[in-house]
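Dear support,

I submitted the protein below through the web form. The confirmation email said the job was done, but the results page showed an empty box. After a refresh the structure appeared. I'm attaching both so you can tell me whether what I see now is the final result or a partial one.
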Amino acid sequence: MSFSVLKAMISCNPMNECLLVVPYFLDHTKLTIIACFAPTKETDENKRYKFYEMLQEVTKDVPRHDILCVVKDLNAKIGADRKHCTEAMDPYGIRVINKNTVIIVDYLRSNDLIIGGTLLEHK
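What the results page shows now:
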């Protein structure tokens, strides 16, 4: 990691083995990165919901004026059917969905976030 990135980092907060929150100072704002690894669809449903509850708690603590990036693997296949989540995704999702899809779309909707991986067509 470069010195300028380390200097901009405010803190590094591991929330648990699946969530890490790292806020940075930028020129005129803050960037908060939430790095996470969501449970897979095979994981007990209760554990999956607890993960997303914790992710929601961490997200709501980020000030609305910060730039927020939630990155890594959310273990959800979003699909390309946008009829129930047009505000959360652009037209280029993949063609398959899984059990985590509903959970992640609800999380995105409640936090006014979009899925960056659906902005461009995948070939």
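Response: this is the final, complete result; the empty box was a page-load delay. Residues 38 and 74 are 5 Å apart (CA to CA).
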